[in-house]
């Protein structure tokens, strides 16, 4: 049965149903409804909700709960995620599974409370220190917020690694019908490495500190092998009308919804346009994108930022096709009309106009 829910609240309910029983966070717009919802729901299921004194405290509480083997989540919005970066690096270094939600707002600095996608670099390139990676998932609807929340806990446990759900203020605040599948949550896996008391067994140590450089190098090499496995097995993307597309748009999250409408409008005008919507921003779906570009003559990346994912698109294309960029910043959303105009210019239908090539 479908129910009408706000994105932030639907994500919170999905986390509960996925077996999350610990949440540590701090309020910041536009994600505050998520901790607000969990403050009510966690006690109802025997879980723990704690509003920490700061984002720094919250992420270190996540470290403790994850180290004890619990399914645990935290959430924030852009500047709050910045404050968590040291702890996220510690979690990755100690190989602790957790889910981190970023409902992005405009920046830099305090910016605004309006939606944005300007945290792409921070999420996908590792905003903290050291050689580490987070799996980064980009939902495109409230239903997908639910579905990817279930998957995020499964991925975190499978790889013993932080997973980030990268949404934006539109998805967090909008209301859509959603359906919960109680069978979607994978059974919680055994965690023999967890610090659950060592009576009757050898003690476990959770740590990311390796003072011997040779030991640290071996640890890093093992982490890199794990990250390569993620790159091989986990990329996901949606393709839309790409079979014969000569101009392929690439967009994620809310922007992809706008681009889908622009693709349909372009088709009505006789322009063979298509769309690739990355669902995993890391690992990036390079092979899926390149398969969709087989008949393409140009690529247009559309984002709510000054140009971030476009760099990964350009790397994937590797100079075979021209890659163009269109973006809005500061909480401004691109319109399907404006995107259609960019498509038309790239297709040579707007005489005397030029589009910036990335």
Task: Describe this protein's structure.
- The chain is α/β, with parallel strands linked by helices and 358 residues long.
- The chain has 2 domains: 2-233, 3-Layer(aba) Sandwich (Rossmann fold), CATH 3.40.50; 239-346, Rossmann fold.
- Helices cover 40% and strands 19% of the residues.
- It has helices at 7-17, 33-44, 55-67, 78-83, 85-93, 120-124, 142-159, 169-173, 213-233, 253-268, 286-292, 309-317, 336-346, and strands at residues 2-6, 22-25, 48-51, 72-76, 98-104, 135-137, 162-168, 175-179, 237-240, 247-250, 273-278, 280-282, 298-303, 323-327.
- The strands form 3 sheets. Strands 3-2-4-5-7-6-12 form a 7-stranded mixed beta sheet, sandwiched between helices. A 5-stranded mixed beta sheet has the order 9-11-10-13-14, sandwiched between helices.
- Helix 12 (309-317) links the parallel strand 13 (298-303) and strand 14 (323-327).
- The longest helix is centred in the middle third of the chain and has 21 residues, at 213-233.
- The chain is globular.
Return the string of H and E elements: EHEHEHEHHEHEHEHEHEEHEEHEHEH
Report the sheet with the most strands, covering strand number, pairing sense and barrel closure. Answer: 7 strands, mixed
Number of domains: 2
Work out the helicity level.
Answer: 25-40%
Which structural class do the helices and strands define?
Answer: alpha/beta
Task: Describe how the helices and strands are arranged.
Layout: E1 2-6, H1 7-17, E2 22-25, H2 33-44, E3 48-51, H3 55-67, E4 72-76, H4 78-83, H5 85-93, E5 98-104, H6 120-124, E6 135-137, H7 142-159, E7 162-168, H8 169-173, E8 175-179, H9 213-233, E9 237-240, E10 247-250, H10 253-268, E11 273-278, E12 280-282, H11 286-292, E13 298-303, H12 309-317, E14 323-327, H13 336-346
Parallel strand pairs: 2-3, 2-4, 4-5, 5-7, 6-7, 10-11, 10-13, 13-14
Antiparallel strand pairs: 1-8, 6-12, 9-11
Helix pairs in contact: 1-2, 1-7, 3-5, 10-13
């Amino acid at each position: 049965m479908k129910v009408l829910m706000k994105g932030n609240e639907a994500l919170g309910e999905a986390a509960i149903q996925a077996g999350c029983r610990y949440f540590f966070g701090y309020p910041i717009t536009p994600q505050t409804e998520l901790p607000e919802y969990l403050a009510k729901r966690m006690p109802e299921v025997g879980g723990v909700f704690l509003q920490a004194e700061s984002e720094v405290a919250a992420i270190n509480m996540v470290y403790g709960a994850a180290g004890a083997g619990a399914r645990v989540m935290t959430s924030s919005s852009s500047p709050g995620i910045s404050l968590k970066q040291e702890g996220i690096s510690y979690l990755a270094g100690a190989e602790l599974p957790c889910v981190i939600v970023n409902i992005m707002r405009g920046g830099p600095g305090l910016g605004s409370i309006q939606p944005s996608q300007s945290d792409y670099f921070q999420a996908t390139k590792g905003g903290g220190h050291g050689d580490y990676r987070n799996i980064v998932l980009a939902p495109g609807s409230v239903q997908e917020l639910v579905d990817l929340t279930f998957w995020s806990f499964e991925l975190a446990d499978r790889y013993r690694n932080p997973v980030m759900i990268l949404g934006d203020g539109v998805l967090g605040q909008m209301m859509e019908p959603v359906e919960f599948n109680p069978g979607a949550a994978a059974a919680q896996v055994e965690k023999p490495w967890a610090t659950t008391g060592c009576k009757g067994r050898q003690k476990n140590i959770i740590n990311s500190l390796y003072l011997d450089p040779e030991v640290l190098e071996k640890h890093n090499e093992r982490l890199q092998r794990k990250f390569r496995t993620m790159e091989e097995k986990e990329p996901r993307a949606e393709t839309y009308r790409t079979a014969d597309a000569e101009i392929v748009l690439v967009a994620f999250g809310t922007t992809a919804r706008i681009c889908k409408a622009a693709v349909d409008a372009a088709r009505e005008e006789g322009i063979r346009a298509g769309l690739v919507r990355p669902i995993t921003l890391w690992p990036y779906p390079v092979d899926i994108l390149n398969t969709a570009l087989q008949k393409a003559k140009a690529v247009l990346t559309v984002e709510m930022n000054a140009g971030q994912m476009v760099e990964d698109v350009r790397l994937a294309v590797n100079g075979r096709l021209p890659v163009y960029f269109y973006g809005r910043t500061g909480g401004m959303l691109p319109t399907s009309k404006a995107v259609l105009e960019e498509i038309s210019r790239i297709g040579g239908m707007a005489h005397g106009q030029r589009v910036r090539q990335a």
